[in-house]
Write a structure and sequence with these properties.
Layout: H1 2-17, H2 29-33, E1 51-53, E2 57-64, E3 68-77, E4 85-90, E5 95-98, E6 109-117, E7 123-133, E8 139-149
Parallel strand pairs: 2-8
Antiparallel strand pairs: 1-3, 3-6, 4-7, 5-6, 7-8
Amino acid sequence: MRSTIILSAAVVLLISACGPEKKDDVISTDVVNNSATASETPADPGTLPVIAFKEQTFDFGKITQGEKVTHTFMFSNTGGAALVISSAQGSCGCTVPQYPRQPIKPGESGKIDVTFNSEGKAGKVEKTITVISNCEPNTMVISIKAEIIVPEER
C-alpha cells in the first residue's frame, strides 16, 4: 500500500512537471546568435568586433604524402569591440587549428596556425576550418588546399 502511494505521488509530480511550456520562456536561437541587446534592439554595427582575414584560402601546392605542413592565417579586428574566438574546428582530424584564447582589441591583429597532416591522403584535397567568434555573423570559414603526391614504391 505504501509503495502504491509513493508511486502515485511520483506520477502526479512527473505529469505536472511536464506541463505545457509558457511561450515567454522560449528563447529563439536568433537572439542567441544575434548581437541584439536585452531589449532586442540590434546593437550599433560600430560597436561590434569585426574579424578581417588577410586571406581566407591557402594553397600548399604539391606536397608528399605523409608530410605535415603548417600555414598561419593572419587577421585583424577592424571593429569597435574586443574580438573573442570561442572555437576553431578543422573539418577532419588531419586539420588542426591553434587560435588565440585571449580577446583581440580593436585595431589589433592575431593569427590562427593550421597544421595539416597528409598521412593517408592522395590527390587534390581541400579542408576547412570553421571559426566561431563574437562577430556578426558569428561563423567564418577559412580553408586550405593541397595536391598530395604519393611516392612511388621501389
